[in-house]
């Protein structure tokens, strides 16, 4: 018995030592590749903050390819006062605008700057003020308390209708109810890298089956009535009211508004590949049936068009113009570098050539 116990102890210690060495290697890799701190937490969560200005990007933060400037915007630093002779464009939106899968510095607002520099050198300045996961009421709060200080001439807003499928409908931020999240004493970077590596290794079909298991478990835990088969009836009018309120605030400050319809990778025919994308989308919203996403997209884009007409804002119908292909979309809604370039060209043409 004693030899077996000693052998088990040796193997346990060897395993712990192996994991420790691999954790050190993961942190060293972050340090070399991203100039990340060796100690402490290092995750995408470090990029966001809730403070008196609202829900926003954390100023002067960085994680991997994502860099936030001193004002809380993705991209190079800008002055609060608009440069003389420039037309300042502020691009608003959630993760699709902030950028996820594109190469560093190639998200569509950054490529929009490049396009405009070619078409009208030195004429425009583009600010990427997007915040992942932000809703119209939270964006309104951030605008009223911070963004309006940046003397915007043109505001481009790319809304995400699916945020209105959250269990709790989007509403104004209440700062005194925000729960302060204490930073974790330790967070394994090895585990984070392992999850990414495994996800890249597994076949798409197997990943889909694993997501279906997670979704089915959530359904069993909550019951069939928990699932949204169609958008709740209060959500479309709520989206209309909140989008209208945001546009009104932007227009009161003299900005020209460009509202952009929301595009997805999913076509009307829904191929097997697109069905897998829908299941991946549902893993983020397990209480939403796959067909409900598409219905909300249609309703949401109709609302965007309606608000543009009512507010006499410029409409850019990206959903009707951008190809729904794998070289444009990296997943169900987020762009590839090429997709961001396509988006930037469409926006630039509407800005410089209003008749386009």
Percent range of helical residues:
40-55%
Strand order of the largest sheet: 6-5-7-8-9
Distance between the termini: 82 Å
Please report the first level of CATH classification, the CATH class of the largest domain: Alpha Beta
Biggest sheet record: 5 strands, parallel
Tell me the quaternary state. Answer: single chain
The count of domains is 2
* Radius of gyration, in angstroms, nearest whole number: 23 Å
CATH topology-level name of the largest domain:
Rossmann fold
- Strands, total number: 9
Note poorly predicted spans: none
Return the average pLDDT rounded to an integer: 93
**If classified by CATH, what would the architecture of the largest domain be?**
3-Layer(aba) Sandwich
Question: Into which percentage range does the β-strand content fall?
Answer: 5-15%
The SS-based structural class is alpha/beta
Counting DSSP H or I runs of 4 or more residues, the number of helices is 11
Which of globular, elongated, flat, extended, rod-shaped describes the shape? globular
Which H/E pattern describes the elements? HEEEEEHHEHEHHHEHHEHH
């Amino acid at each position: 018995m004693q030899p077996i116990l000693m052998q088990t102890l040796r193997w346990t210690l060897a395993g712990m030592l192996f994991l420790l060495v691999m954790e050190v290697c993961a942190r060293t890799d972050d340090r070399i590749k991203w100039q990340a701190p060796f100690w402490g937490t290092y995750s995408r969560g470090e990029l966001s903050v809730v403070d008196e200005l609202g829900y926003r990007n954390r100023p002067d933060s960085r994680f991997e390819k994502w860099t936030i400037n001193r004002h809380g915007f993705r991209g190079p630093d800008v002055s609060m006062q608009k440069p003389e002779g420039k037309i300042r464009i502020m691009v608003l939106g959630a993760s699709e605008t902030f950028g996820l899968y594109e190469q560093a510095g190639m998200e569509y607002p950054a490529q929009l700057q490049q396009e405009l520099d070619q078409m009208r050198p030195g004429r425009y300045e583009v600010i990427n003020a997007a915040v992942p996961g932000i809703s119209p009421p939270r964006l309104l709060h951030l605008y009223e308390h911070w963004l309006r200080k940046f003397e915007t001439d043109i505001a481009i807003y790319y809304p995400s209708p699916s945020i209105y499928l959250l269990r709790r409908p989007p509403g104004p931020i209440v700062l005194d109810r925000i729960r302060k999240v204490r930073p974790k004493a330790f967070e394994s970077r090895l585990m984070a890298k392992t999850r990414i590596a495994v996800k890249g290794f597994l076949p798409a079909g197997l990943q889909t089956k694993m997501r279906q298991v997670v979704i089915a478990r959530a359904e069993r835990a909550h019951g069939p009535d928990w699932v949204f088969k169609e958008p709740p009836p209060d959500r479309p009018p709520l989206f209309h009211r909140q989008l209208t309120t945001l546009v009104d605030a932007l227009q009161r400050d003299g900005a020209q508004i460009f509202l952009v319809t929301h595009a997805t990778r999913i076509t009307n025919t829904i191929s097997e590949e697109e069905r897998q994308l829908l299941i991946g989308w549902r893993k983020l919203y397990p209480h939403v049936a796959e067909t409900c996403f598409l219905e909300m997209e249609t309703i949401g884009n109709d609302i965007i068009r309606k608000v543009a007409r009512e507010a006499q804002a410029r409409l850019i119908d990206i959903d009707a113009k951008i190809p729904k292909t794998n070289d444009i979309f990296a997943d169900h809604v987020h762009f590839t570098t090429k997709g961001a370039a396509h988006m930037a060209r469409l926006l630039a043409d509407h800005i410089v050539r209003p008749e386009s």
